[in-house]
Amino acid sequence: MPVRGVVFDVGNVIVRWDPRTLYSKIFPDPAERDWFLANVCTMAWHTAHDAGVSFAGNRAPLVAAFPEHEAAIVAWEKRWWEMFSGPIPETEAAIAAMAARGVPMVGLTNMSTETSAGTFAMSPAFARLQDIVVSAAVSLMKPDPRIFALAAQRAGLAPSQLLFVDDSRRNTDAAAALGFDVHLFDDPATLQPALAARGLL
Questions:
Q1: Which residues, including other chains, have CB under 8 Å from residue 119's CB and lie 6 or more apart?
Q2: pTM, whole model, 2 decimals?
């Protein structure tokens, strides 16, 4: 079946997010910053937020283990918004153009419910999506097949009728195995040609 709709990831597809944007301010020494992000506030540790664990609850054992880094650990929540560097213009433009054409679009993101509303306020693109599936809200996370099925259900289309756009190859591979058409978002300039090739633009 032809592709009729799009499922968009959020972080680094619609808005740019990188902990180093914040922690470069806290740790001007790159070696010290890299050690902190590799050993204290790691991406594996952060995954618990996306699964629904609160920021306060998730950091408590970390602060106990690294009391000398308490301020930097707390900054993961208190200065969360400094990890963002704005929307991605190419994606915003594509979403606006497809919304004008009536293309069904939904979001699918691994994200904490504590930060979702603020994130979705960053760009008018989010209001043009008919729904956004947030992992912490549904107790499922990419690449679990069930969260992809939920996104397809919210879009009202079969996986084979949907293009899934994500910056993680692990996630695009998982979606492809379920029948989605996929686009690995590794260069914003490739998005609009990929959409146009599928007749979505």
A1: 10, 15, 84, 111, 126
A2: 0.95
